[in-house]
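Quick illustration, no need to memorize.
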Amino acid sequence: VQLVESGGGLVQSGGSLRLSCVASGFTFSRFGMSWYRQAPGKERELVAHISSGGYTTNYADAVKGRFTISRDDAKNAVILQMSSLKPEDTAMYYCRTFYIRERWGRGTQVTVSS
């Protein structure tokens, strides 16, 4: 099982970024997928979750209305579209699923400058 994130970078406050996580080694379409983030000195927190089939999505209060999670089962990918970014969104962003056990990617860094 492998989860590989990409799309992070440095962006100014108010800007946008699109994160992608490509999965392999399991039947992607059958599993819910999540994005988490961890800022320096803080605990890892859930950002957004999407169910298998994409029927339901959930967001942390801090990102509601600014971030959108989606999935492309044909490409085994889960996307996090982030807009109106704030300096407090600066963190390492991780892709996660639960297949037999928790599975995590290595993360992609997002830095928002003020």
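DSSP finds no helices and eleven strands in the chain.
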